[in-house]
Amino acid sequence: MSTADVLLSARGLTKRFGGLAANQDVSLDLWRGRIHAVIGPNGAGKSTLTNLLSGDLPPTSGTVTLAGHDITGRAPHQISRLGLGRSYQKTNIFLPLTVQENVRLAAQSRQLQRPWNPMHWVDAATQHAQVQARCDRALELAGLSARRLVVAGTCSHGEQRQLEIAMTLATQPQVLLLDEPLAGMGVAEAERMVELLLRLKAEHAIMLVEHDMDAVFALADHLTVMVNGQVIASGTPEAIRNDAGVQAAYLGEEH
Amino acid sequence: MSAPKSHLETLPRSVQFLLATAVVGLALFPLMGSDYALQSLSRMMILAIFAMSLDLLQGVTGLVSLGHAAYFGLAGYALAFLSPANDPAALWWTLPAAMLFSGAAALVIGFFVVRTHGIYFIMVTMAFAQMLFYLFFDNKALGGSDGIYVNIRPGSGPIDLENKVTLFYVCLAAMLLVYAFLRRLLWSSFGRALVGIRINEHRMKAVGFATFGYKLSAFTLAGALAGLAGYLWGALNGFVNPELMGFHMSAHAIMMVILGGMGNFAGAAIGAFVFEGVLHWVKDLPQVGSVRLGDHWQLWMGLFIVGVVVLAPRGVLGLVGSALERLRSGKGEGA
Amino acid sequence: MTLANFLIQLLNSVQYGLLLFMLAAGLTLIFGIMGVVNLAHGSFYMLGAYLAYTLAAQMGSLPLAIVVGALIAGVLGFVLERLLFRHFYHRDHLDQVLLTFGLIYVFEELRAIIWGNDVLGVKIPESLDWSIPLTDTLSYPAYRLFISAVCIGLALALYLLISKTRLGMKIRAGAFNRDMTESLGINIELIHALVFGLGVGLAVVAGMVASPVSSVYPNMGSQVLIMCFVVVVIGGIGSVRGALIAALLVGLVDTFGKVLLPQVAGMLVYMLMAAVLLWRPEGLFKQ
What is the pLDDT of residue A115? Predict the structure, then answer.
């Protein structure tokens, strides 16, 4: 694969909170067509890393490049518009709105944003063909087409996790950062999600933060292991499985 | 902090019917009402416009402004300054000019204020409104604490606001136009984005919305609409003073929006009528023994406000909505 | 401006700033720890002034009245918190704003019923009713220095309480992590009631000690409330240190502004606030 397929690149990312280094000198690449899993014990800094990449936190030092643009320290909405989509570990949806409206709003974000333009004050939000198309496709991918009109707050936990993904997909990103998408899911739902991720792989660069080791080893093309804010190993699943350091620090204890 | 509220956005048929009836009643009122009642209702309709403009910020976008009266008062002053000493001001351009003035002030102040959140937003909106209050209060050139008179009410062509009935219908038309516009806005892409910002601004940013621009636009538009109300108020009363921009006026507006039920504009309008009604009623309370109850209206108003917050935080329409939910589902769970 | 004039204005700035700090400290603590915004905080300042009027007359001594007033205020704050405010910690800021606005009306009317609407005066205690000569023609009232001294004393006491005592540690813990503090067996509800009582006490004492200089009149609460809000916004919510620095800054800008630029004096403090907001939208010392 050529370097043109590296969609997101992080170099030397460090994040300090006072004296504590939540992330220390973390580097990784996300390639189109590959799922890159980030694993590690609780407190390893995985969530911080995701936040650094999505713009929710500015790094203390280091750089992040997305599709050729330097996005270090940029605001989340700008990074999103450049083609990054992120789902959250703790479900972060619009609870009082319907499933459809949740996804439609995410899809609407891709329209040209001119909030001061009075034309947008009097148009009909649901009549935009392009937005509807994006919304429908995302709902279909996430398997929620039948549940469009249900209020998100009344959905089951698994459906809400599906909605998380649907909203992320509705912005048609090139890079997906998925924070524990399988968390709290039943067996059938988890299988569905794994299928979906394999389907999405071809067109996207995916970073997956997960604790479910079965899913990780089934999905990942590449693994990064973090402990205490640092990367202790990075490589193919086989290499990681056999790495003594990783076994000692993480796999041996957890499994 | 409570979870983001789901507001009643689509009004139940029964409520729509009642509102339509009320509007028809208002339209027919001048045929039978007294002059005094005409003036009272005109006041209420103007306050309804003011409250609806605040609902755009508070109910729809979730921005609690404790300084919205600034834009109300500024437009009133604009009318006063644009009115010649012995002639009526020309309605056709002074009205838009006043709205533009209020909108511009909202844009400038909004630029500073919209970057804050939560309690900061409440405090700084109040602070900037107080700044304007003192600007007018302390400067004789701007009328000082005494205020300014609008000697002759504005007019253009056949519309002469000196005529109380004409003024009444202008207020009614303005109220209905603003309501129709805002209802349309609620379901536009701009309106849906504002609702998203209220419910979860963090996720809106994460999916790519530049929320600052949306909030500032809402703030500016709300200011301009408050200006429409302020202009009409100045025309109705023939007089403006710094209290129109004051903290009490802003707090009353918040109360009106909450009293009726937030987020659908009808509630704000209803709340304005109810609040003004209660205020009048409380000030006119009779004498009991040696105590004129009406003199202590502040106490009654204060207790009324506290009561509403404790007992009916989602306002009249909230109560109606909950009641209808219960009737429909047969259980006790609300939306 | 001569040196003596400058000194006078400087002392006035500090005195005004310290009074604002007394109010802002309570407001910012109550908000920082319990998450409640209280628009009626200015009413406590007003209550202090009116209490000074009544108690000083009854007891014949303002300092004694202040001590008694502080105790009354503490109890009042405690009771208000237990009965009313604690039910609003989890409510929207909107509800809190309206509730406390309603309270302003209630307090104003109770004040009118008890004390009427006239402007009242409180006499400076004789022991402090003298002036320090600065030049042949200018002198500075000793009582104003007394006001500053009381405020400084209370500020120090507050600092010692919060950072050096176990109670202060519990207060800080409660602000930081409520659930954890509760699980450690600390009575968080008692802490909240004490903090509220403290906040009210500071506001009342400020009103009492300032009353001979500011006089006692209706609406004095609203005027000081807005300045208090500006101080908290500039200083940063929850930061007592920020409140002190912001209060002194506001005192300086307002006092010198009135002397040097009288036409825009009223706007200067707000311009300061706007400038701070551009630079730090969450105040100078964000918690």
Answer: 92
| Strand (E) or helix (H) holding B49 | helix B35-55
The rounded distance, in Å, linking the Cα atoms of A211 and A186 is 15
C-alpha to C-alpha distance for C231 and C139, rounded to whole angstroms: 30
SS (H, E, C) chain A: CCHHHEEEEEEEEEEEECCEEEEEEEEEEEECCCEEEEECCCCCCHHHHHHHHHCCCCCCEEEEEECCEECCCCCHHHHHHCCEEEECCCCCCCCCCEHHHHHHHHHHCCCCCCCCCCHHHHCCHHHCHHHHHHHHHHHHHCCCHHHCCCEHHHCCHHHHHHHHHHHHHHCCCCEEEEECCCCCCCHHHHHHHHHHHHHHHCCCEEEEECCCHHHHHHHCCEEEEEECCEEEEEECHHHHHHCHHHHHHHHHHHC
Find the radius of gyration of the CA atoms of chain B.
20
The percentage of chain B sitting over the pLDDT mark of 70, rounded to a whole number, equals: 96
CB C133: neighbour CB atoms within 10 A?
A: 11
Sequence-distant (6+) residues with CB within 8 A of B2 are C90, C91, C92
Consecutive H or E run containing C141: strand C139-141
User: Among residues B45, B291, B321, B3, which one has the least CA distance to residue B176?
Assistant: B45
Distance CA B177, CA B172 (A): 9
Cα B2-B4-B9 angle, rounded to 5 deg: 135
Can you tell me the distance from the alpha carbon of C12 to that of C134, in angstroms, rounded to the nearest whole number?
Answer: 14
Task: Choose the closest CB to B112 out of C94, C232, C277.
Answer: C277
Cα(C63)–Cα(A198) distance, rounded to whole angstroms?
78
SS3 label, residue B149: strand
Question: Residue A116 — φ and ψ, nearest 5°?
Answer: -90, -5
State residue A62's pLDDT score. Answer: 93
Question: What does the pLDDT read at residue B244?
Answer: 96
Cα–Cα distance for residue pair A63/C269, rounded to 1 Å: 40
**Which H/E stretch holds residue C139?**
strand C139-141
For residue B298, list chain C residues with Cβ-Cβ distance below 8 A.
105-106, 108-109, 112
Instruction: Work out the minimum CA distance from B205 to partner chain A, whole angstroms.
Output: 5
The interface predicted TM-score of the complex, written ipTM, equals 0.92
Q: Are B262 and B55 in contact (CB under 8 A)?
A: yes
Predicted pLDDT at B2 = 40
Give the tokens for residue C282.
Answer: 């969450």
Averaged pLDDT for residues C242-260: 93
| Rounded-to-integer distance, Cα B324 and Cα B335, Å | 10
Whole-angstrom CA distances from A231 to A24, A49, A71, A150, B223 are 8, 11, 22, 42, 52
CB contact under 8 A, B119 and C31: yes
* Arithmetic mean of pLDDT over chain B: 90
CB contact under 8 A, B217 and A115: yes
**pLDDT at residue B3 tops 50:** no
What is the percent of chain C where pLDDT is above 70?
Answer: 96
H runs (alpha helix) in C139-239: 142-164, 166-176, 178-183, 188-214, 220-235
The pLDDT of residue A2: 57
User: What pLDDT does B33 receive?
Assistant: 77
The encoded tokens of residue B60 equal 């729809």
- Which helix (H) or strand (E) segment holds residue B191: the answer is helix B189-206
Q: Supply the pLDDT for residue A29.
A: 93
**pLDDT tier for residue B332 given thresholds of 50, 70 and 90:** very low
Pick among B298, B304, B314 to test the C interface (most C CBs inside 10 A): B298
pLDDT given for residue B6 in this prediction: 58
Size of interface B-C (CB pairs under 8 A): 121
Q: What is the pLDDT of residue C167?
A: 79
Distances (CA, A) of B87 to A11, A168, B156, B157, B231: 72, 61, 12, 14, 17
In angstroms, rounded to a whole number, what is the distance separating the alpha carbons of residues C251 and C256? Answer: 8
